[in-house]
Amino acid sequence: MFGRSKNLVGLDIGDSSIKLVELKELGKGRGFQVQKLGWEPLSSEAIVDGAIMDSQLVVETISRLFQRLKVKNRQVCTALSGHHVIVKRISLPTMSEAELQESIHWEAEQYIPFDIDDVKLDYQILEGSSLSGEGNMDVLLAAAKKEKIDEYVGVLGQAGLQAETVDIAAFALQNVFEANYEFEPHQVIALVDIGAAVSSIAVLHGGTSVYWRDMNIGGNQYTDAIQKELGLSAEQAETLKRGEEIEGVLFEQVMPIMSAVSDDIGGEIQKTLDFFKQISAADEPLDCIYLTGGSAQTVNLMESLGQRLNTQVEVLNPFRKIGGSGRDAGEELVGEMAPTASVAVGLALRKQGD
Predict the structure, then answer these.
(1) Residue 43 lies in a domain
(2) Which of 5, 57, 218, 310 is the most exposed place for a label (fewest CB within 10 A)?
(3) Full-prediction pTM beyond 0.85?
(4) What distance in Å separates the CA atoms of residue 155 and residue 80, rounded to the nearest whole number?
(5) Looking at the DSSP assignment, which residues form a beta bridge with residue 47?
(6) Which residues are within 8 A (CB) of 193 and not within 5 positions of it... i.e. 6 or more apart?
(7) Do 189 and 139 share a structural domain?
(8) Sign of the C-alpha dihedral computed for residues 238, 243, 247 and 253 taken in this order
(9) 218-251, pLDDT tens digit by residue?
(10) How many domains, in total, are found in the chain?
C-alpha cells in the first residue's frame, strides 16, 4: 500500500486503427515522458460502430503492435464510446458516501436506458456547489453494457494482456487536456474527438466537466460520400480524402463533397452545444474547440467549424507538455501521431487502482 502505483499502457482500440502509448512518470511535479508510441491499421471489417466483428484479427493486430514496440508491461487501460456507454451528471439529495453506495443502483435506473442488471456502473461525487442548489450534490454517473466490456476485455486477454481499467473515451480526452493545457476561470471549451465511425464531445466549464455526448458520425462519412458520388472504390476514396489525387480524378472534384460532410459534422456539434446551453443555462460563450482524432485535420474542417460556431478551433496536442524520448518515441513519430493519439495518451495517464 506504500508503493507507487504502476502506470498502465494506454490502448485505444478504434474502428480503423489501434494506438498504443506508454508513459514514464518523471517524478513529483515533473510530468511525464513518452516511452513507447505506435499504431497499427485495422481492417474496416474488424470493428464496426464499436462492435468487434472479427476478434481474432483484433487480437493479432494488438499482439503485433506490442511485439513490434517491444512493450513489456502487460497491464493496460482501454476505453469505450458510442451508444453502449451512458454518462450523466445527476443531482441527488446530499448524503454520505455509504448512503450513496447503497442507493446508487436505484437512482441510476431512472437515468440508464438499459436494464440495470446488464450494465457495469460507476460514479463520482463532484466537488463544489450543486447545479440544483443547496441541499443537493452533483454526481457523475457512468454506465456501460457488461457484454461490451467483456468483449473488449476478452480480446485483450487473448492477446496476453490484463485490462486493469476500462475507461470512457471522453474522460480520457479530458485527462490528456488537463495534462497539457491550463484552464481559465469561466472558460468554456469543447473537446471533440472525430473517430472513424463515432465522434465524442466533452464540454468543460472552468475546468469542470459539465456535458458529454457520443455522436454516430465520423471520418467514414467522408469516405462513403466520395465513394458514392464519384463511383470509386473505398481505397480510392480514402486516398482522395487524405488530399492525394488518383488517376482520372482531381482533388478539386472532391472538395465540394468534403465540404458537405464537414457541414454535417458541424451541424451535429452545433446541436450538441445548443442542447448543452439549454440544460445548463450557461451564459458564457464557447471560447475554443479542440479537435482530435483521425479526421481532425481534414481539409477545411477547422475553418468550417470556426465559421459555423463563431469560435476559435485548434487541433489538440497531447504531447504539448509530454515529450518523446529516444528511438521508440522520436520527434518525427510524436509529430505524426499527435492528431490521433489523444485518447491513448489520456488512457496511459491512468494508474493501477486510481
Answers:
(1) no
(2) 310
(3) yes
(4) 14
(5) 52
(6) 169, 170, 173, 199, 200, 201, 292, 293, 342, 343
(7) no
(8) positive
(9) 999 999 999 999 999 988 998 888 888 888 888 7
(10) 2
Residue 34 lies in a domain: no
Is residue 159 within 8 Å of 78, Cβ to Cβ? no
Residue 284 domain-assigned (yes or no): yes
d(CA 192, CA 329): 25
Q: What is the DSSP string of 214-266?
A: EES--THHHHHHHHHHHT--HHHHHHHHTT--BTTB-HHHHHHHHHHHHHHHH
Question: Does residue 39 lie in a domain region?
Answer: no
> Residue type for 48, please?
V
Is the same domain home to 192 and 312? yes
Q: How far apart are CA 108 and CA 123, in angstroms?
A: 10
3-class SS of residue 190: strand
Q: Which of 24-28, 85-89, 115-119, 151-155 has the lowest mean pLDDT?
A: 24-28
Q: Do 187 and 298 share a domain, yes or no?
A: yes
Helix (H) or strand (E) holding 119: strand 119-125
CATH code assigned at 113? 3.30.1490.300
Other CB atoms within a 10 A radius of the CB of residue 255 amount to 13
β-bridge partners, 168: 80
Question: CA-CA distances (angstroms) from residue 187 to 134, 139, 208, 244, 269?
Answer: 24, 22, 10, 38, 18
Dig out the grid coordinates for 89 from the structure. Answer: 451528471
Q: Same structural domain for residues 133 and 190? A: no
